[in-house]
Design brief:
With 97 residues, the chain is of the alpha+beta class. The protein has two helices and five strands; from the N terminus they run αβαββββ. The chain is globular. About 15% of the residues have low confidence.
């Protein structure tokens, strides 16, 4: 899975900002920085988002060049975490009923 390789690179870039973070914390970062890296490093685009609760938004990001996707959970405190990822994203074409 190349998204794993790409995320490894993304997380490697985040290491200097994480200080003494544990391995389990590596998929979380400041929301602005996370979004910037998803766009600039991975070339991801946000496909959709929705409110999970009053303080949490879920976003689906897709890497168009290889149909990989990830779900980003963003919190009101300014932190975002990658909570799921996968391959073979397909965009539904909505036509007449």
């Amino acid at each position: 899975m190349s998204i794993i390789r790409n995320l490894s690179a993304l997380l490697f870039l985040a290491l200097p900002t994480l200080g003494h973070a544990q391995i389990s914390d590596l998929s979380c970062d400041d929301s602005v920085r996370m979004t910037q890296r998803l766009v600039e490093v991975l070339g991801a685009t946000r496909q959709s988002s929705g409110l999970r609760d009053p303080e949490t938004i879920l976003e689906i990001w897709v890497l168009p060049r290889n149909s990989e996707w990830l779900i980003l959970q963003s919190y009101a405190n300014g932190t975002s975490c990658i909570v799921a990822m996968g391959e073979h994203w397909e965009t539904a074409v909505i036509g007449p009923a």
